[in-house]
Amino acid sequence: MSSLLAHIPESLVASAFHLLLILVVALAVNRLLRLATNLLVKPAASQARAAQAREQQTRTLSGVLYSAASKTVWAVALLTAVQEFGINVTPVAALAGLTGLALGFGAQNLVRDIITGFYIILEDQYVIGDTIQVGETLGRVEHLTLRRTVVRDPRGALVTISNGDIRTIANLSRDWSQLYVDVQVAAEEPVDAALAALEKVASELRADHWWRDLRCSASRR
């Protein structure tokens, strides 16, 4: 083994060591980023809706920040590692900057998506787990990034919405909600009889033990 190592150029050994060091540092920084972003998460102190929503909001913000920072770390690590192969990254970085500037003019929608996504998270408009309606799309938020919102609709389909396309949001999970029920009554039927039937059904619902316990639990939250 020692004779084999003796035939390996020292420069190659040094480059391999540097690459390994870059990998270890990148992994360590990502680990520190994970720990730092986890500190942003505020565990719910109770089962109250506000406390649960606050925890979900901080978890969403933590995940978005970690994802962006981690990608930056790996990009820097890759540029640093490339130099070990004798490649000058300055022209590459300059070219990447010019390319990014050119793409920036054509990627206005992407910039708009990211800015809108930032305000969605910052203003706590909705978080993962909320039921929202955006235009004709109604469903539960399953994934949220700065660029897109992924909703699972009542059909079970995953619907991806660009954040920049979101103009009006209806959050059906916050505080309380209403249910509208349309009841059709034949023209020849007396209105008083229909109202009496509706009142009877509503009274039975209010008297139902399961519904009453559920309503009291929701009001305490």
Can you describe what's shown?
By secondary structure, the protein is an alpha+beta fold. Helix content is 59%, strand content 11%. The protein has helices at 2-6, 10-38, 49-82, 89-106, 108-122, 191-207, 209-220, and strands at 131-134, 137-144, 148-152, 158-162, 170-171. A 5-stranded antiparallel sheet has the order 4-3-2-1-5. Strand 2 and strand 3 (148-152) form a beta hairpin. The longest helix has 34 residues, at 49-82. It is elongated, with a radius of gyration of 28 Å. The relative contact order is 0.08. The mean pLDDT is 78.
**Euclidean distance between termini CA atoms:** 69 Å
Q: Could you tell me the radius of gyration in angstroms?
A: 28 Å
Main-sheet strand order equals 4-3-2-1-5
Fraction in beta strands = 5-15%
Can you summarize this structure?
59% of the residues lie in helices and 11% in strands. The protein is an alpha+beta fold and 221 residues long.
Write the layout of secondary structure elements.
Elements: H1 2-6, H2 10-38, H3 49-82, H4 89-106, H5 108-122, E1 131-134, E2 137-144, E3 148-152, E4 158-162, E5 170-171, H6 191-207, H7 209-220
Antiparallel strand pairs: 1-2, 1-5, 2-3, 3-4
Helix pairs in contact: 2-3
Attribute tags:
single chain, 221 residues, alpha+beta, 5-stranded antiparallel β-sheet, 5 strands, elongated
